[in-house]
């Protein structure tokens, strides 16, 4: 295989999706989450949190809507 990829360009569009236990969040965020025990955070390659969403499917949808490539972070 001799296909060339611009890895630097690809990495600029990657976002990481990870589960977050709501009990670990600040109280003001917990108040907004309701009765969910877990939500999902979306982070850019620099580690900056971009969003908190109710479920994994929504996190991936949100990323793709903004032309980003979501990957799961454990």
Round the mean pLDDT to the nearest integer and report it: 88
The SS-based structural class is alpha+beta
Low-confidence stretches: none
- According to DSSP, the number of beta strands is 4
Beta-strand level of the residues, as a percent range?
Answer: 25-35%
How far is the N terminus from the C terminus? Answer: 30 Å
Helical stretch tally? 3
The SSE string, one letter per element, is HEHEEHE
Radius of gyration: 14 Å
Helix content: 25-40%
Question: What's the domain count?
Answer: 1
Largest sheet: 4 strands, mixed
Q: What is the overall silhouette?
A: elongated
- How would you write the strand order of the largest sheet? 3-2-1-4
Protein name: DUF1150 domain-containing protein
Organism: Yoonia litorea
Description:
The protein contains three helices and four strands, in the order H-E-H-E-E-H-E. The protein starts with 6 loop residues before the first helix and ends with a strand. The longest helix has 10 residues. A hairpin with a 4-residue loop joins strand 2 and strand 3. The protein is of the alpha+beta class. The mean pLDDT is 88. Helix content is 31%, strand content 32%. It has one domain. Strands 3-2-1-4 form a four-stranded mixed beta sheet.
Give the structure's gist in a few sentences.
The chain is of the alpha+beta class. It has helices spanning 7-12, 27-33, 56-65, and strands at 14-21, 38-44, 49-53, 69-72.
């Amino acid at each position: 295989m001799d296909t060339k990829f611009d890895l630097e360009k690809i990495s600029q569009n990657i976002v990481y999706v990870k589960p977050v236990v709501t009990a670990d969040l600040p109280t003001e965020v917990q108040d907004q989450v309701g009765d969910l025990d877990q939500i999902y955070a979306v982070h850019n390659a620099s580690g900056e949190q971009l969003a908190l969403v109710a479920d994994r499917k929504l996190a991936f949808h949100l990323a793709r809507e903004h032309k980003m490539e979501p990957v799961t972070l454990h």
